[in-house]
Fold:
Amino acid sequence: MPGFRLMSVLTTEGARASVVVDDRVFDAEEITADPRYASILGILDDWEHAEPRLRALASSRQLTGMRSQPIDKVKALTPVRYPTAIYCAGANYMDHVANMAKSSGLPPPQDPRVLGLKPWHFLKPSRCAVGDGDIVAKPSLKLDWEAELAAVIGRTCRNVSMEGALDYVAGYTVANDLSARDLGPRNGLPDNSPFKYDWVAHKGFEHSCPVGPWITPASEIGDPQILGIKSWVNGSLKQDSNTNQMIFTTAEQIANLSSRITLHPGDLVLTGTPAGVGAERGEFLEVGDLVEVWIEKLGKLTTHIGPPSL
Structure:
């Protein structure tokens, strides 16, 4: 198990930042006596000092006798409540891109690197992030799953190099970039119209970004480009890949984003999904389905699909 992990949990006082050590959950403010650490955003804003401080606590005996709960007795919320921004990489695993093209009757796409392209991202609304075990109301007929590695920014980041980009990552977590495939194309517009797609309906609907259950510090992970990544629907394996299959690495994505906009502590960068999503095979989520996303060293995120909201 990692030295420590960070969670947001639901308590009688509302959402509280918590530190997980050996499957025991400690209130972050209580064990540090630092009111800034009542929220994960507060911890990330002070990550340079918070990370060694929490690591020292986790590796010492100072937590012995302090109030805690078993991890299976707490309600996990999305770890960062709420991310200052959620950047999502599009078309970043070549096998997924090829399968999506094939399902649309298109020829295999060229490698974007050969074309001289850079990573591209779209945004999800901050408040669409939900936690492990939450229920997501099915928004449309063609609701799809997308397993993704998410990098959590821990330092203000602007115009950084690819070589130094990962120094700005506090940690990593598991994400599911849920997509309402049938809500993207707008009716009545030709396919070549620049106004054809509604990205808010497609990607930014209510609770469209399950994230969690915790943040694992980057120092516990090492290279983020060698992690197994899988997803299941009702126990049936759908995606089975490795982050080494990304077209643009996590570092390349962060460097490129930072060349256009300042990244802040608490920002999430979702790094793309591998082959195996529902749209590639004409399968979509139904009410009552259970979606599980697992990433090596990070754990498993579960999401329940509920009936459409009124």
Q: What stands out?
A: The chain has two domains: 5-77, 86-306. DSSP finds seven helices and 19 strands in the chain. The domain at 86-306 is CATH 3.90.850.10 (Fumarylacetoacetate hydrolase; domain 2). The first strand starts at residue 5 and ends at 11.
